[in-house]
Amino acid sequence: MKEDFTQRQILEEYKKIVDSSYIVTETDLRGVITYVNETFVRISGYSREELLGKPHNIVRDPNVPKETFKEMWQTIKSKKRWKGILPNRAKNGKRYIVDVTIAPILDHDGAIIKYIAFRTDITQLLAQKQQELSLSVQKALLINQEDLLATIPLPSAIVNEDSTLLYVNKTFKQFFEQKMSQDDCLENYFIDKEGYISQGQIIDWKSCELDICSIFNKKVLIKVHGHEQEFLLHTKMLEEEKFIVSLSPLA
Questions:
Q1: Angstrom distances, CA of residue 11 to CA of 114, 129, 205
Q2: How far is CA 6 from CA 1, 9, 14, in A?
Q3: I want to staple 242 with a disulfide (CB 3.0 to 4.6 A). Which of 30, 197, 233, 238 is the partner?
């Protein structure tokens, strides 16, 4: 009796560990929910009463191809484990992504009596990886754009729609001898004077003539080595919300 009691205690501890670490559900042979742990209740947004006795597709994402579930059922009905990554829908319609393993539970004769599923919420993990990938792509694109700027003999910069300087070439740095800051804007270099683009004037780069050899709008006045100097702006669109701006000295 003591040994049996100890074994039951161990099994209970295992169950607590699993329930605290995974999203757990059990279904009958038809896929009707017979057990849910608290983690599943919390992430799905349904109450326990709303889930028990309902088909497990209550949280199915409609965008998942039917072939995926067909392959899943074929696998678990053949007494094998199925593993995959699936999006689910909570009661409020919010989408979450789970890494899921579904296994058939067999009796002493080898017949399937139910299915149990263990899931891990990987929504934030995938979002983080997607953000890291996006940053890597942006960095790679910027490196290529830096190479492009290096071929332009004029002081040139890559700016966004707000005129924030994303990168300047060597000639730009030599001309203006100004240390770049993260939120530096090209317009901060302009001297306010009648007949020139001023610091307070918002430049709509999209409406400009997007040709590297074309001249648009007014002239700008910038201090170079302590002296005011006139420049004309030339622009070329690199991609959505990014532009190359070159400054052509007039003197």
A1: 19, 36, 67
A2: 9, 5, 12
A3: 238
User: Which is higher by pLDDT, 166 or 80?
Assistant: 80
Mean pLDDT on 224-241: 79
pLDDT in tens, 128-159: 887 876 676 666 666 677 777 888 888 888 88
Q: Would you call 175 exposed, middle or buried from its count of C-beta atoms within 10 A (0-12, 13-18, 19+)?
A: buried
Summarised one tens digit per residue, pLDDT across range 22-46 is: 899 999 999 999 999 999 999 999 9
Dist CA 123 CA 19 (whole Å): 19
Whether residue 117 sits in one domain with residue 17: yes
- 200/67 Cα distance (integer angstroms): 58
CA 210 remoteness from chain centre: 30
Q: Find, among 192, 198, 175, the residue nearest to 248 by Cα.
A: 175
Q: Is residue 40 part of a domain?
A: yes
Specify the pLDDT at position 166.
86
pTM for the structure as a whole: 0.53
Whether residue 181 sits in one domain with residue 76 = no
Based on the domain organization, do 78 and 47 belong to the same domain?
yes
Per the structure, the complete domain to which residue 95 belongs is given by 2-121
Residue 180 pLDDT more than 80? no
Alpha carbon distance 175, 154 (integer Å): 9
Supply the CATH number for residue 143's domain. Answer: 3.30.450.20
d(CA 235, CA 206): 10
- Segment holding 153, helix H or strand E: none
DSSP lists the bridge partners of residue 114 as: 105
What is the pairing mode between strands 156-160 and 242-249? antiparallel
